[in-house]
């Protein structure tokens, strides 16, 4: 019984040491514990722990009885001393084994939680990196759009200045056209006046010719 308890305690200590350091053996130990905690494994572990607890209580009760007998008798029996040491060693080993089992269970639980949190953090980092990349791409795209807008604004300003220059040219051309129209109207009026004067002069010449011809005919008679 004592040899078996020693083996159990040392095995549990070795398992805790293996779980405390990141080695390939730790993965095997964790996989084994994962399988033990599935199906009927927890029930078996609880049954063994309950049995060990009952044996521990029995050893403690036996030590209390031996100690009470010592108090009543007032003398130390060598047999009782051997039994006391045996029960004390058994109780110590069984209590240590139960404590180490609890430590193994908690350590396994914390390692699993740490793995889950690491995976969650890695996924979060990847997602955050994706967001950062998308944000960087969005910033670059926005910057490109802003540059394009600035270029279009410059082109718009150039077109507006060109339109203003064209408007000035059109206004100048319209002013020239109005001036030319007025000048042509003046020329037409002057032309009409000249035609009228020419017609008057022709009429006067015709009258003079007629009067001269009449006077010449009178002289001949």
From TrEMBL:
Gene3D superfamilies: 1.20.5.110
Subcellular location: Endoplasmic reticulum membrane
Chief location bin: endoplasmic reticulum
GO cellular component: endoplasmic reticulum membrane
InterPro entries in the cross-refs: BAP29/BAP31
Keywords: Apoptosis, Coiled coil, Endoplasmic reticulum, ER-Golgi transport, Membrane, Protein transport, Receptor, Transmembrane, Transmembrane helix, Transport
Any one biological process term the GO annotation gives: protein localization to endoplasmic reticulum exit site
Coiled coil region boundaries: 142-211
Membrane topology: Multi-pass membrane protein
Entry's transmembrane regions: 6-22, 43-64, 84-104
Domain of life: Eukaryota
Function: May play a role in anterograde transport of membrane proteins from the endoplasmic reticulum to the Golgi.
Family classification: Belongs to the BCAP29/BCAP31 family.
PANTHER family, per database record: BCR-ASSOCIATED PROTEIN, BAP (PTHR12701), ENDOPLASMIC RETICULUM TRANSMEMBRANE PROTEIN (PTHR12701:SF18)
Protein name in UniProt: Endoplasmic reticulum transmembrane protein
Origin species: Trema orientale (Charcoal tree)
Organism phylogeny: Eukaryota, Viridiplantae, Streptophyta, Embryophyta, Tracheophyta
């Amino acid at each position: 019984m004592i040899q078996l308890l020693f083996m159990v305690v040392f095995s549990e200590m070795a398992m805790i040491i293996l779980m405390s350091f990141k080695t390939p053996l730790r993965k095997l130990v964790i996989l084994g514990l994962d399988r033990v905690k599935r199906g009927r494994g927890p029930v078996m572990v609880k049954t063994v722990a309950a049995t060990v607890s009952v044996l521990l209580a029995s050893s403690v009760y036996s030590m209390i009885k031996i100690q009470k007998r010592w108090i009543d008798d007032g003398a130390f029996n060598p047999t009782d001393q051997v039994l006391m040491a045996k029960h004390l060693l058994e109780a110590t080993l069984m209590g240590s084994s139960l404590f180490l089992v609890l430590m193994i269970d908690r350590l396994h639980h914390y390692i699993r939680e740490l793995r889950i949190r690491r995976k969650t953090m890695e996924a979060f980092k990847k997602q955050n990196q994706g967001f950062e990349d998308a944000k960087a791409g969005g910033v670059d795209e926005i910057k490109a759009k802003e540059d394009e807008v600035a270029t279009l604004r410059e082109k718009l300003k150039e077109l507006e200045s060109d339109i203003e220059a064209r408007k000035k040219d059109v206004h100048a051309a319209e002013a020239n056209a109005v001036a030319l129209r007025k000048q042509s109207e003046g020329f037409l009026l002057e032309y009409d006046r000249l035609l009228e004067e020419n017609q008057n002069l022709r009429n006067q010449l015709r009258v003079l010719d007629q009067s001269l011809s009449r006077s010449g005919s009178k002289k001949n008679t």
